[in-house]
Model the fold of this input.
Amino acid sequence: MSKRKSSRESPWEIRAILASRLRTRLPEIEKAIFSRVRSLTDRSENDDHSYLAGLREAVSAALVYGIEGVEKGLDRPTGPPPATITQARRAAREGISLDIVLRRYAAGGKMLEDFVLAESADVSRAALREILADLGPETDALMARIAAEYKDEIDRADRSFAQREAVRIAGLVHSDSPVAPLDFDFDFDLWHVGVIFRGGSAERTARQLAYRFGYRLLCAVRDEETVWAWLSSPSESAARNVDRLLGEHMPGELAVALGEPRLGMDGWRLTHREARVALRVMLRRPQRLTRVRDVILLAGILDNETLMGALLDAYLGPLENDGNLNQDLLDTLRAYFSAGGNAAASAALLGVTRHTVQRRIKTIEQSLGQPIHACYSELVVALQVADLIGMN
Done:
């Protein structure tokens, strides 16, 4: 189309004229932009045929999209071309940096502006300013979508890898697993502590703690809030120090269940099973750190309904009145155990007299038919079970 003065044309007619001129030069413009885009390279990039073909297709689609923007402005209803999204995801998989991807779109947008200027000698300054003012946000919006698609592909790939790794590790937990320890870049002959992290930053925290304190780490992401982990070391003392380090340096929003330090492949499996035992208690009684050594009896009782019923019936049943547990007696027992069996300290905790505590202890022992010291452990566990299942 021959160039002519367009001062009498409407803004939309001017846009249509410019778009038509650009489409006439489409092969030339596409070649120039592709050459410029290819000059922006990444060290990770190679001359893979499928990647280059996708890049050329994305350039072509983005150019058509850009010319449509010249013609219709910001009011057009269409979104980014599928080819640009496909290529953004391909770049993420190929390891091309997001910086290079976005610089290419910025360079392509700038070159399109240059071609618009070259075709607008007869366009009024006001009309040209309006067209160029639209092109900038158009390019920014396209780059934002490309960045989002790129990052989503990275996240998807990370999740996919993490899921596959979690399945492999879960298989290895079983002694009859077809998965072999040699399939992992991990030394199973070390001392291991099985840890189950619960919380939104579980995986990041596990990696940070392992790096900071020099532990080898193997972890399996189970879901968004649960990570199985093994913190391992050649040193037994370092393994025994894990619970202290977690207690001192773990973020407040996390909770962990821990097994005992164990050696070798069998120990790797055992400490994880112990952590899962501790987890069952932790889920009922939330606290920042639950060691299996502290909840072994409690966990065993919770897993066996027959034993749990027998324990509660034998040691808390006698403290019932008309089918309801005597709360004063239960509170006295808790205070008595917390105070190490000291009646005066128990009275201070309860806000009653020492005589009251002694009277209640005597009532408890008469109801049980034996002194408290003779069934101390059973009473402690029975109270813990009652608390966990909400009996009182």
